[in-house]
Every structure is written in structure tokens, then in C-alpha cells.
């Protein structure tokens, strides 16, 4: 039996439509800007659920119709795996980890500012429950993001496969693919569901 199956799961937040983007290398040590992305062309579109599982928090990017897992972030501390961009309140950078410890930074965007606000509230709530002593430090808002020691942005033409431990073989009748993947070539989204570009730098969206 898998011990994880006995853990209680609760939904902290759900957004039925988020977009995932290829993120170019950061141009500033202070953080990312959505204006540097091609926000009119996303690589994936689906549902986001923020789950509390036992004593941890998981961000799950899933197919909105089938529930198939596309990528997952294990959220441990504020603004480490999730980083807000500098020029918009609707866009974030997620740091996902795949098979063999490979890491990648991907962009995520919300259609509505209200969803982005509720997403922040859910993460702060999860952080306070897992680390009550940090509550006073979080009252003034998230700290300024710092540059990671390495640039994990997906390069053009690079393929990144994400496999979540303990989840393989759980879906009956799967028959198709070998596991969720993130393609860094910009395919699969296109301008069909194009987002309006974020406001210019210096003005929050």
C-alpha cells in the first residue's frame, strides 16, 4: 500500500484556466518581467489546484477535462518555488523539478487579477500553517526575489519531462503517453487563446 494514499487532501485554491509559458533567461538579478515573455503564445493551458496534503502543499497543473497531471510544484516556503514577476500581478515563475533532479523555470499566468490574488492568499495561508513562527515576518508581504545560483530557463527546442513519484500507474485505462511533459518549443498553445500583453514595466497589471 502507498502511504501517501492515506494522507488527507484538501483544496486551498483552484483556478480552472491558467497558462504556462516558456521563460527566457532573466535579464536582471532583481527578478523576472512578464514583458520579456511572449505572453501571446503559451505552451500549455489547463487547471491549477493548490492542495494541502498532510503537512505539505502541492501546486498541481492538470488537464481541466481529464485531470491528467502536467507538472507539480512542492511548495515548502514562501517565494522559493513560486516567484511573482516584477511588472504584473497576474504572472508568476514556478520552479518545477523532474526526473533525475532536473529543474526548470516556467511562467504561469492568470486571466483575472482576482484569481492571482486568491492564489497568493492560499500560498500564504499554507506557509503560516506549516511554519507558524514565520507569520510575523510575512505580515509585511513577500521579500524581494533573489537570483538563483543557476539559470534553469528552458532553452529553445529543449524537451523537459516531469514524472511525479508515486503517481505512475494510478490512472486506469491510460494506454497513451508515458508521462506528463513540458515542451519548450512553444507548441500546443498558440495564439488561439492569446492573452493581452501585460502592462509596460513600471505599471502593475
TrEMBL record:
Q: Where is the composition biased (Pro residues)?
A: 195-205
Q: Where is the NECAP PHear domain?
A: 8-164
Q: Which GO terms describe its biological process?
A: endocytosis
Gene Ontology cellular component terms for the protein in this record: clathrin vesicle coat
Polar residues: bias regions:
125-140
Q: Where is this region: Disordered?
A: 125-205
State the Pfam families in the record.
DUF1681
Superkingdom of the source species: Eukaryota
Stretches of Gly residues bias are at 172-192
Name the InterPro entries on file.
Answer: NECAP_PHear, PH-like_dom_sf
Question: What is the protein's given name?
Answer: NECAP PHear domain-containing protein
Organism of this sequence: Dioszegia hungarica
Amino acid at each position: 500500500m502507498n502511504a501517501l494514499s492515506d494522507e488527507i487532501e484538501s483544496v486551498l485554491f483552484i483556478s480552472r484556466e491558467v497558462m504556462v509559458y516558456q521563460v527566457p533567461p532573466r535579464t536582471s538579478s532583481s527578478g523576472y518581467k512578464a514583458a520579456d515573455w511572449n505572453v501571446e503564445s503559451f505552451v500549455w493551458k489547463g487547471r491549477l489546484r493548490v492542495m494541502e496534503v498532510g503537512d505539505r502543499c502541492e501546486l498541481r497543473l492538470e488537464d481541466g477535462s481529464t485531470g491528467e497531471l502536467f507538472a507539480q510544484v512542492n511548495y515548502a516556503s514562501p517565494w522559493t518555488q513560486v516567484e511573482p514577476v516584477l511588472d504584473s500581478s497576474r504572472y508568476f515563475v514556478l520552479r518545477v523539478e523532474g526526473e533525475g533532479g532536473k529543474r526548470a523555470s516556467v511562467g504561469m499566468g492568470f486571466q483575472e487579477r482576482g484569481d492571482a490574488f486568491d492564489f497568493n492568499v492560499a500560498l500564504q495561508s499554507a506557509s503560516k500553517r506549516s511554519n507558524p513562527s514565520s507569520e510575523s515576518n510575512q505580515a509585511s508581504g513577500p521579500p524581494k526575489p533573489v537570483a538563483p545560483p543557476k539559470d534553469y530557463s528552458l532553452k529553445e527546442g529543449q524537451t523537459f519531462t516531469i514524472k511525479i513519484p508515486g503517481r505512475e500507474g494510478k490512472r486506469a485505462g491510460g494506454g497513451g503517453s508515458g508521462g506528463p511533459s513540458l515542451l519548450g518549443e512553444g507548441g500546443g498553445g498558440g495564439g488561439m487563446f492569446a492573452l493581452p500583453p501585460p502592462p509596460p514595466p513600471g505599471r502593475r497589471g
